[in-house]
Amino acid sequence: SLPQGAGPFPAVILLQESGPYDRNEQVGPNLPFLDMADQLTQHGVAVLRYDKRTYLYSTEIAQEHTFTVYDEIIDDVALAVDFLKTLNTIQSDAIFIAGHGISGYLMPRIAEQTPEAAGYMLAASARSLEDLLLTQTQYVLDTETNLEDAAKEQMLQQTKETVNRIKNLTEESTYPAKDLYLLPASYWLDLQNYDPLSQIQQIDKPLLFIQGGRDYQTTKTDFELWKSVLDESKNIHFRYYDNLNHIFMTGTGKSTPAEYQQKGTVSADVCNDMIDFVKKHS
Hints:
With 282 residues, the protein is an alpha/beta fold. The protein is built from 12 helices and 6 strands. The radius of gyration is 19 Å and the shape is globular. The mean pLDDT is 95.
């Protein structure tokens, strides 16, 4: 998505949450990445979006037994940066990368592969994926009113068993993907020693952290963990929005999965902070 005019323009690459998302990161009737692209291009910032590999090739990837986050996300980000650098409409020294959910969690690894990027934006967990799986399941079950307590307890117990299998995986483990949250053992083994809170400190480019106060998938706990290891004086910016959910849309009360089925638009506050960050560091 390009602004009006000849350019060259600064650019943002938008990276999706975990799962087989299209370029708009569609959730129900909501298209958060399309909203962001629309708002950013109106203010002179180009945006690159693309369908995830897991969206386009889900059948093939299900047969892949060595699949990791590099195959899912990281390799394609590096290619996206290379692609933007070939365009005369793009300011090659002002390419920024914005990660949502797992893509933000992986930003230290992404930064290793994209050292030419001008800065990075995160709306991301700082805790392991399996720990999030458990806390999110607990939260959703607590808000669910149509299930009996016994059914909730069974679902929670199944999640705990899955998390326990993931945490105790070894190279010799033979669990099928269906027993590991539909991901092969290679995926989880690759992340076992990953420490984003330590590795984020190695990034020497500007960082912007954004957090919705009603987000139950990436929470204030994660936001505070990032803050605890970083010095805000070094081109590192933190923005917290009390009334926004995981897809940066406004609401009231506790956020629930059903909320995502109501049409909304990404908050202009988030987009304005992203625009300000890009223009400050371009």
